[in-house]
Design goal:
Layout (H helix, E strand, L loop, with lengths): L1 H29 L12 H28 L2 H5 L10 H26 L8 H10 L2 H30 L1 H6 L1 H11 L3 H38 L5 E5 L7 H8 L4 E10 L3 E2 L7 E5 L3 H5 L4 E4 L1 H6 L3 E4 H7 L6 E11 L1 H31 L3 H19 L9 E16 L7 E5 H7 L7 E8 L5 H11 L6 E5 H44 L1 H9 L4 H37 L12 H28 L2 H5 L3
Parallel strand pairs: 4-9, 6-8
Antiparallel strand pairs: 1-10, 1-11, 2-4, 2-10, 3-7, 5-8, 6-9, 7-8
Helix pairs in contact: 1-2, 4-6, 6-9, 6-20, 8-20, 9-18, 9-20, 14-15, 18-20, 18-21, 20-21
Length: 618
Amino acid sequence: QAIVLGVVGSGIGIGLGWGMVKGIVAMMGQMGTPMTGSSNPSVSDMLVGLAVGLIVTLIGAALPASRAAMAPPIQAMNETVNPEKPVLTRGIIGTTMIVVGALTWAWTCRIAVADGDPTLIGWLNDFASWTGTGWPLGVGAALIVIGVIVAGPAWVSPAGAVLGWIPAHVFQVTGRLATRNLSRHKRRTSNTAAALFVGVAIVSCLSVVATSAKASVNDIVDTGLKADFSISSAASGQIPDNAVEAIKGVDGLKSVSSNRMIFGAKYDGKQVKGMTFAAQDSLFTDVFAPEIIAGDANKALRGGELVVGEDIADDQGWKVGDTVKVSTENTTVDEEATAQAQADYQTQVQAQIQSLTEEAQKLALAGDAAGAQAKSDEIQQVTQQAQNVDPATLVKTKQVTVIKKLKVGAIISNSVYRSCVFVNDDLGDQLGTKQTMFTMQMYLVAKPGENLDKLEQRIKKAVKPYYVISVMNRDEYKSTMGSMVDQILLVLYALLALSIVIAIFGIVNTLALSVSERTKEIGLLRAIGTSRGQVRGMLGIEAAIIAVFGTVMGMVVGVAAGAVIRAVYKADGLSVLSIPWDQLGVFLVLSILVGLIASVSPASRALKQPVLDAVASE
């Protein structure tokens, strides 16, 4: 049975997955970002999907099959003497796993926020240095998720009493019956809620991270960014030089700061995990207020010293005052070789023309006028070719290594600069070339008292010939950063939708099985006067409590995980914790609707059977 279900389910899943990919490809094509690669799954992909489906189904069937096979026949025939196993042990084991996972998360946060060693114990510090924050974060998450699933059955009765309190008082008969029915099969109820728990936990966690990222960006712009306008380009991030000059010529600007990337910069012969920029002296005075750990960022930039982000300084072990050998390798025009190539080409052309001229003269003296004319035409053709030759074909290049010994003048901790090294424009021009260095971002500051709306119009007019240039004020800049996060949230909602679909099927199956087992009981309830609406209400309340149970567990674990991730990556830009309470409220309301929808089919099935047949079903 498991093999048949595994083959059929895996086949349907592979087909649906293929269709989803096709839909995503079509949607991206409509959005202007077509995918050129093949979207068709390979044979190996489909075989892997089929194998996974079969293995999971067989494992899922093994435990209940073993339990059924080991049950004594007479005892199995009488369910009244075959009660559900106690769940206390599972509750203790699961709760212990959750506590250990929470302690692991606390240890992760301690490693992340510690300025230096997290403890006073040497071997423990060495262990923390070896694991970093990634492993404890993942291990803690696994322990908590598995612990909740293990302990779930022990929580069904308390959760049913709490979640069923309102239904039991509003619908005194059906509410109480629904609450009691859940406790009959605690394991089944918990396993049904687990599907929704996992999906909601993932989405809640990522929602907290995403909204925290959005709030952190807004905080950075509000507290750190001094510039009035930001300029960016959609053309590979490169702002044309002519556009830069046009912007600089706009009246009403106090300062124009542009960041140019220096490619291939090495420090003491090694590349660092970050980017090197050439910036104007106004960067730290007019654009972004530096969060200084050591040194004076503004003075260092103006004085030709390195301004280093904290992450790079920590990785390299740099301190203020250290001397670093900065080197770049640039491809430049070899003026001497190019001049020689041009001279050689001219000599070659002149020699060819001289040879053709001599041949034409000989032919003319020999009386061959046609031959002489042909040679003259050939001379004219060679001359014309020489005049139209592409100068670029004669340009010769060479590799030039530039080495500068520079001091570390300041170390800054701004989240946007933690993985950056800054030098001033003069050093940038020496380390890079005009061809390899291009402007990626510009920040504009208006003169005091300038009308920002009118200034923005003048800036947009100046860059109008350059269609790829975007001019954003502070609010638009925040909105653009936020829209990137919103796109991530769309993916999260898609994940939630998938988990809801899975959960609906799980709840439907659970209720259908419960209805089948309680056929006689439901028949007796109807025989003593329970209405069809009350039966539907009882099953609806059961389904809603199961859905809310899984959703609440998922939200608690997901929000906690998101808060821990935010704390771990606080230094990397997630400076503000933002919990999307409105979205969580929507998830909770949605879970109730999911439960009610899932109860429709089992309730209809329960009501189809005549009362007397239901009573006599056994």
